[in-house]
């Protein structure tokens, strides 16, 4: 542990990624921590959904927004730590000392919480999945080309399951929905659309096992929860929508008396500045008067938090970075992009 970072960002979703970018723009050294194996936050869970609410960006699939955010977040070469869950944080002189789940420590001058609603993980199927069929079991919406003219079984009965079933149908999949309950729990209007789309629905069934099949990749063993009867369903893909496990107790375990809202959010009287000097917040975890709960709002939080951090570290610095259109940092990058575009056009 040699480096002392200007800012340690906990959370690699949209707010954390844009914070990383903007911190680099402001000449701050960055450590970016993400508990999942990849950056992107909740965008990773709806890769095929269209995102409409980012200014000047046309409707774009979640996976493309995520890829572009990751690329932007890495512009100034932050130190990125994936599969890294921060478990403790203590004050050490004027700095903060973080420790991860493996006992590794990191030192920084400030901390920026961009943890959203916590560490989110999809609930997995309880049955054993053989390695050779793992690629056909999905916990996020699969690539639309992979399911075209294929049989997709959606396991679940909530809003996510029904929405994805309808979306898969639009992409040309033969869709089957199976649900352990008596009746689907999704919004009534969406269930009506499901019925009108002639999507097969099996209720009171659970997936007891999944095996390879000699024709289709998979054979599902569905067991009726009441009669215990077994039904075999061949298919090409399974999309599991059983909800998410949320681990959101990090702030509760820390020895800091944060001002909170609803016993969860970090309430900031001045946007992005918590009541603990040197600790800041951005994105869903951040609450303040006038909070905008959109992706665009997360970007605003990120820039504002970084500007606050810059002033905290260097009180004589300017309040914000120069806009990108006139910022010298982008001069060389712009020249490189122009050369590439000229090369393509020649």
UniProtKB/TrEMBL annotation:
Keywords: FAD, Flavoprotein, NADP, Oxidoreductase. Residues 5-298 form the FAD/NAD(P)-binding domain. GO terms for molecular function: ferredoxin-NADP+ reductase activity; flavin adenine dinucleotide binding; NADP binding. It catalyses: 2 reduced [2Fe-2S]-[ferredoxin] + NADP(+) + H(+) = 2 oxidized [2Fe-2S]-[ferredoxin] + NADPH. InterPro entries: FAD/NAD-bd_sf, FAD/NAD-binding_dom, Fd--NADP_Rdtase_type_2, Ferredoxin-NADP_redctase_2. SUPFAM superfamilies: FAD/NAD(P)-binding domain. Pfam families: Pyr_redox_2. FAD binds at residues 34, 42, 46, 86, 120, 284, 325. Its EC number is 1.18.1.2. Its cofactor is FAD. Binds 1 FAD per subunit. Belongs to the ferredoxin--NADP reductase type 2 family. Homodimer. PANTHER family: THIOREDOXIN REDUCTASE 1-RELATED-RELATED. This is Ferredoxin--NADP reductase. It comes from Enterococcus sulfureus ATCC 49903. The lineage of its organism: Bacteria, Bacillati, Bacillota, Bacilli, Lactobacillales.
């Amino acid at each position: 542990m040699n480096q002392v970072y200007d800012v340690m960002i906990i959370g690699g979703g949209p707010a954390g990624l844009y914070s990383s970018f903007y911190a680099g723009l402001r000449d701050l050294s960055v450590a970016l921590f993400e508990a999942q194996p990849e950056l992107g936050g909740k965008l990773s869970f709806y890769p095929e959904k269209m995102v409409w609410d980012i200014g000047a960006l046309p409707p774009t699939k979640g996976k493309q927004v995520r890829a572009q955010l990751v690329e932007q977040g890495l512009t100034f070469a932050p130190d990125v730590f994936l599969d890294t869950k921060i478990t403790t944080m203590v004050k050490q002189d004027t700095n903060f000392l973080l420790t991860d789940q493996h006992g590794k420590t990191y030192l920084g001058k400030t901390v920026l919480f961009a943890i959203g609603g916590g560490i989110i993980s999809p609930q997995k199927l309880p049955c054993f999945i053989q390695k050779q069929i793992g690629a056909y079991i999905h916990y996020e919406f699969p690539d639309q080309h992979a399911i075209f003219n294929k049989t997709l079984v959606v396991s679940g009965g909530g809003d996510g399951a029904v929405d994805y079933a309808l979306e898969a149908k639009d992409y040309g999949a033969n869709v089957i929905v199976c649900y352990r309950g008596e009746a689907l729990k999704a919004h009534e209007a969406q269930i009506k659309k499901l019925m009108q789309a002639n999507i097969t629905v099996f209720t009171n069934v659970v997936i007891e096992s999944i095996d390879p099949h000699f024709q289709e990749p998979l054979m599902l063993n569905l067991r009726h929860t009441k009669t215990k009867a077994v039904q075999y369903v061949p298919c090409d893909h399974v999309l599991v929508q059983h909800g998410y496990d949320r681990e959101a107790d990090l702030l509760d375990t820390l020895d800091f008396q944060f001002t909170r809202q609803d016993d969860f959010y970090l309430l900031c009287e001045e946007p992005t500045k918590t009541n603990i000097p040197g600790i800041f917040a951005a994105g869903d975890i951040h609450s303040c008067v006038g909070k905008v709960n959109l992706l665009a709002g997360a970007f605003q939080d990120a820039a504002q938090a970084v500007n606050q951090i810059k002033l905290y570290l260097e009180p004589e610095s300017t309040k914000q970075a120069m806009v990108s259109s006139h910022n010298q940092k982008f001069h060389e990058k712009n020249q490189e992009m122009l050369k590439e575009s000229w090369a393509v056009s020649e």
